[in-house]
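Hi U.,

Before I forget, here's the chain from the pilot set. I'm dumping it here mostly so it's searchable later in email.
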Amino acid sequence: MAKAIALLSGGLDSSLAVLTLLAQGVEVTAVTFLTHFGCDITDRSSCSKDPFEAAQKFGFEVKLCHLADKFIEIVKNPKHGHGKNMNPCIDCRILMLREARSLMELTGADFLVTGEVLGQRPMSQRRETFPVIDREAGVVGLVLRPLSAKLFKPTQAEVSGLVDREKLHAFSGRTRKPQIALARELGLTDYPAPAGGCLLTDPIYSYRLKDLLAHDPDPSVKDITLLKYGRHFRHSPRCRIIVGRHKGDNEAIESLVSPSDTTLRAPDTGSPITLIAGAADDAAVFAAASLTARYCDKKREKFVTVNVFRGLDAHVCDIVAIPSDDFTLDAMRIVEKSAPKIYIPKKYRRDILEVAVGVS
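Structure:
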């Protein structure tokens, strides 16, 4: 019996790739790669659905592999560059295929399987990109992409007869209609809606990450994880202030607090938890108190009492804070600042253009 290692994100495409091979009697072991940037089976995204439910239903094995520091390094310095935001899609794919090949060799599998669809993603799923990825990952001829296989030259698995090429597919482009039809045919009913998946494609998260790396080239896992939660403010080169937006944020931030951290809350009212990440000097504490006051339910009051804690519950002191104003928020918030848009009445636009380019 042919054996394959499949890259399984839990999304629709990778699940269909696995089921397509199972339908041909191939023994499939799936590997789900985890990172600190949203590829996590507990996150809600197209690339992070819990893979074990499908594995149990359809009868295949799933292994989890965390890419950890290897992935952080390619995020910081990708050989093939970033996408629109901080996503190193080509380098990411190369890394995953290298790891998958190691598992293939370890288990005696015959080939690799991915759910990639030609033309679906603008950076890593182009016809000219696939050979580059396979070559640099050291997997030339070993990667079967069942959903688009008929649009490529036959792989080793097809040439050797391990897989029937006629039972593979020729999907391309960004439409999901063929995949949805195939899912119905194969009995796959529970899959996430298409989404960005990786947090590195999100512009807000990416800018936070850029800011973190600019001030700390070697951030901790905790610092990276915190980027997913709350409102982020830059107080100084060595200090960020993170303010929870809702109950879920507060709980996530609390779970990451260490006994040496400084946190703040406004008592006797609905309040965010505020965490000072970095150097918690007096100026940072007062700034964090003002931010806490601004986002608590007493934000319209002139003064708000804010409790300061070491860790979560070791009370240090109380501060009577003035809620931060809009100018302070905009100055401190870690978000890409765009140039202000100036409206020019239509009747004046030609005059301004003539002055700018010297039209007479």
